Amino acid sequence: MSKISRTATILLALAATTGCSKSEDNAAQPKPATPEPTAPTPSPSGTAPTAPAADKPGTATITGKITFEGAAPKMAPVNRASDPFCAKTKKDAQDVVVTGGGVKDVLVRLPVGAAKGAAPSTPGTIDQHECTYVPHVQGIVSGQSIKVTNSDGTTHNVHSYVGDETKFNEAQPKGSAPVEKPVEAEAGDVMKVKCDVHAWMESYVVVTDHPYFAVTGDDGSFKIEKVPAGTYKLEAWHPKMGVKTVEVKVDDGATVEAKFPAFTGTDVKK
C-alpha cells in the first residue's frame, strides 16, 4: 500500500471514530429537568395569596359581626378638665367599645395583596368634634389623602405618625380652615393621629391597596361589597386588640357570612 493510501485509510478511521463519539455524547445528554412549581410570594400581611390579585370589582358581599367573649373591659371617663371647652362634654375612653357583645371600631379587610384598586379622588376625613377624633378608626386606599377639620371652639394639634416617624404636625386653631395632607404610608401601614394639646385624642388610619374593607359599627357588624370572587384570609384589626383572621370563599353574586373568632380579655393591650 502506498503512503497516500495508508494516510487516507487512517483519516477515514479517525472520522468514523469521531462521529461515533459525537453520537454517543449526544445520546448521553440528559433532558432539562422540569422545574418545580414556585411557592407564591407571601403578601405583606404575612399570608400567601391563594390567587393572583383581583384587579376589578366583583359582585360578592361579605358580612359578619366582630364579637367580644367574656366580660368586656369597662371604659373610664376621660379627664378633660385641662381645657374648659372640652370639659363641657363628658366622654368615656374609646380603647375598647363593646355593646351587646359586638366590638366597635374594628377594620375588616381582604389581606393586602389579594386585590387591587385605585385610590379615590376624594380624601378620607377626620373631624375634631367635642374634643374627640371622628372616626376613631378608618381605612383608606394607598395614595389617598386625608382631610382634617376642627369643628370645636378650641385649638387642636394634628400630629400623625407611622411607627415612630412623624408624617405631619400642624396646629388647627378654632375656626381655621380644614387641613388636607397626603398620607405618606404604604399598604399595610397604620397612621396614628394624636392631638398634642389633648392627650386623650387618638385616631387610626389603616392603609391598604384595595377598597375591600369596612369598619364595624356600634353593634360590631360590618359589610364589604363588590368583592371579587375568590378565597381570602380575611383580617379583622383593632388598635388595642390586634388581629383575628378567618378564611372565606366567595362566589360571584353570593353573600357570605364571615365568622371570626371572638376577641377576649387576653387580647386587650394595657
What does this entry look like structurally?
- The protein has 270 residues and is mainly beta.
- The protein has 2 domains: 50-116 and 209-270, Carboxypeptidase-like, regulatory domain (Immunoglobulin-like, Sandwich); 118-206, Cupredoxins -  blue copper proteins (Immunoglobulin-like).
- Helix content is 11%, strand content 36%.
- The protein is built from 2 helices and 18 strands.
- It has helices spanning 3-28, 84-87, and strands at residues 60-65, 98-99, 102-103, 107-109, 124-129, 132-134, 137-141, 145-150, 156-162, 165-172, 179-182, 190-194, 202-208, 213-215, 221-227, 230-238, 242-250, 255-258.
- Strands 7-13-12-9-10 form a 5-stranded mixed beta sheet, with no helix packed on it. A 4-stranded antiparallel beta sheet has the order 14-4-16-17, with no helix packed on it. Strands 6-5-8-11 form a 4-stranded mixed beta sheet, with no helix packed on it.
- Strand 2 (98-99) and strand 3 (102-103) form a beta hairpin.
- It is globular and about 55 Å long.
- The N and C termini lie far apart (106 Å).
Main attributes?
36% strand, 2 helices, Immunoglobulin-like, mainly beta, 2 domains
Quick summary:
The chain is mainly beta and 270 residues long. It is built from two helices and 18 strands.
- The count of strands amounts to 18
CATH architecture of the largest domain: Sandwich
Rg, Cα atoms, Å: 31 Å
| Low-pLDDT segments, ≥5 res | 1-44
Structural class: mainly beta
**SSE ordering:** HEHEEEEEEEEEEEEEEEEE
Q: Which strand order spans the largest sheet, edge to edge or round the barrel?
A: 7-13-12-9-10
Helical content stands at: 10-25%
Name of the CATH homologous superfamily of the largest domain: Carboxypeptidase-like, regulatory domain
What is the overall number of helices? Answer: 2
Mean pLDDT: 86
- Please, how many domains? 2
Specify the biggest β-sheet: 5 strands, mixed
CATH top level class name of the largest domain: Mainly Beta
The coarse overall form would be globular
Would you tell me which CATH topology of the largest domain applies?
Answer: Immunoglobulin-like
N-to-C CA distance: 106 Å
**Strand percentage:** 35-45%
